[in-house]
């Protein structure tokens, strides 16, 4: 893979002059966030790569996305710092990549950093030789030494010094790493065609999933906890085909805890990307289109199996959120909502008890009991709305009355929240993620009979055919943001 890096040419450099934005307005929202940094950022393209070759300078590739909280943190701490930027500009050709526009490049360099460090994530910062071979990298680096990590300045100075003084060793190290990555990505002679299909093998997969299951709070493994939607879907389908009750029980437990958790927006619908705790209470607040599309599919299949009304409501409210906040008038679904607003993670979604009391009056006591709102707060002196216990535990047999009252309270808080400064929106429209939405909307329509879901799918298909299809042929581009991005679709877009 590394031997066949593709280069998207024709892009304008992000900055040719200090503090000057030379981006055209249609460029990636993530790149625009960095357009006024004092770092001399370039987009990935032949111009930047030729600069590195002609000057014999190493390349810093920094990869992230617009809704990434720690990308914002590192930008504020390091990339907006004049002294740090001067060190970077002197020693490197600096390239910014939106991982959602170029998942191919992100995959290559994420593999490299994981091979070097044993972990990965975003922001992804990797140093390359002018021949595009990685030799050092990592994720977030603090502005001063902390968390058992070197500071970003220390990294920049050390890498620049090593390239000047030990260039031959670095090139040998990079060549060895490239060979390792090429071998690791060579699938020939690997997995057998077709994969497991006999019942015993399928049961083994279910058993292995359940060995990692959190039997109290749902999901799998330890924090940070991602929904692992494909694992939940596997368990649901395993029950459907073979009647394996433990599979259904854990899938239902996981979905129940997800929809009760802070990872689910209790007021507006939709899911955040993951939770930082075991109970799904504390989300990483960014909301991604593909996560919500996949969770819609899981709740839909669970609804088909169980007919639980709560699942139908999650489907309805999540589609409502996506239509309201992440869909263009023309029918394209946007990529993501930021974790931060006004520079603070989660500020848009959290509440103080006095604010809740002022809005709800006499209804506030019940609401605060159900959604764990307290004077001291349940997260950083503020409150994330979540349900530690099922509503039946509060309702004394009057579940209908309680549900109606809480829905009214939620509507009042939602209306008040609409007046707040909203998190940033990445309005890039990605083919593959929209295709996931089409599938989930069609499944939701088939399961519930709601005509609106089918109509949204049809509108989305029309948008993609009109705006991302290539010359009316059965070929597509990867993304759209007020105009076509010249990057052709990847195999996962078609899949």
Number of helical regions: 19
Query: How many beta-strand elements?
Result: 14
Biggest β-sheet description = 5 strands, mixed
The overall average pLDDT, rounded, is: 89
SSE-based structural type:
alpha+beta
Shape: globular
Task: Tell me what you see in this structure.
- By secondary structure, the protein is an alpha+beta fold.
- The protein is 48% helix and 9% strand.
- It contains 19 helices and 14 strands.
- Strands 1-3-2-4-5 form a five-stranded mixed sheet, sandwiched between helices. A three-stranded antiparallel sheet has the order 8-9-12. The chain has a two-stranded antiparallel sheet with strand order 6-7.
- The longest helix is centred in the C-terminal third of the chain and has 19 residues, at 399-417.
- It is globular and about 75 Å long.
- The two termini are 20 Å apart.
- The model is unreliable at 1-26 (pLDDT under 50).
């Amino acid at each position: 893979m590394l031997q066949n890096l593709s280069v998207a040419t024709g892009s304008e450099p992000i900055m040719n002059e200090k503090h000057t934005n030379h981006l055209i307005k249609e460029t990636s929202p993530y790149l625009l966030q960095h357009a006024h940094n004092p770092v001399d950022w370039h987009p990935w393209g032949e111009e930047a790569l030729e600069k590195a070759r002609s000057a014999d300078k190493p390349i810093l590739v920094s990869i992230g996305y617009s809704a990434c909280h720690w990308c914002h943190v590192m930008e504020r701490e390091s990339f907006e710092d004049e002294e740090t930027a001067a060190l970077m500009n002197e020693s490197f050709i600096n390239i910014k990549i939106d991982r959602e526009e170029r998942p191919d490049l992100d995959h290559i360099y994420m593999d490299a950093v994981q091979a070097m460090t044993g972990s990965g994530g975003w922001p992804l910062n990797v140093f390359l030789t002018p021949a595009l071979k990685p030799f050092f990298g990592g994720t977030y680096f603090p502005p001063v030494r902390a968390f058992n990590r070197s500071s970003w300045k220390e990294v920049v100075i050390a890498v620049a010094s090593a390239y000047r003084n030990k260039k031959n060793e670095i090139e040998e190290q990079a060549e060895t790493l490239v060979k390792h990555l090429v071998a690791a990505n060579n699938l020939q002679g690997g997995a057998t065609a077709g994969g497991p299909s006999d019942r015993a093998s399928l049961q083994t997969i279910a058993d292995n999933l359940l060995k990692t299951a959190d039997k109290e709070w749902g999901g799998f493994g330890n924090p940070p906890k991602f929904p692992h939607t494909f694992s939940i879907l596997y368990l649901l389908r395993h029950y459907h085909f073979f009647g394996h009750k433990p599979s259904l029980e854990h899938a239902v437990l996981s979905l129940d805890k997800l929809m009760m958790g802070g990872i689910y927006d209790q007021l507006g619908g939709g899911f955040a990307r993951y939770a930082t705790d075991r109970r799904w209470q504390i989300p990483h607040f960014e909301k991604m289109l593909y996560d919500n599309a996949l969770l819609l599919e899981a709740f839909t299949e669970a609804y088909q199996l169980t007919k639980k009304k709560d699942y139908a409501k999650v489907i309805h409210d999540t589609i409502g959120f996506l239509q309201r906040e992440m869909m263009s008038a023309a029918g394209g679904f946007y990529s993501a909502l930021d974790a931060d607003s006004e520079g603070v993670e989660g500020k848009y979604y959290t509440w103080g008890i006095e604010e809740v009391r002022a809005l709800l009056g006499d209804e506030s006591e019940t609401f605060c009991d159900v959604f764990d709102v307290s004077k001291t707060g349940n997260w950083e002196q503020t409150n994330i709305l979540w349900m530690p216990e099922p509503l039946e535990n509060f309702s004394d047999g009057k579940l209908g009355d309680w549900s109606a009252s809480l829905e009214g309270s939620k509507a009042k808080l939602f209306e008040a929240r609409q007046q707040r400064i909203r998190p940033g929106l990445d309005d890039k429209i990605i083919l593959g993620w929209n295709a996931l939405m089409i599938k989930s909307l069609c499944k939701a329509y088939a399961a519930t009979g709601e005509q609106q879901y089918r109509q949204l799918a049809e509108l989305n298909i029309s948008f993609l055919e009109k705006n991302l299809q290539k010359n009316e042929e059965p070929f597509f581009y990867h993304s759209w943001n007020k105009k076509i991005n010249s990057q052709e679709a990847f195999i996962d877009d078609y899949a």
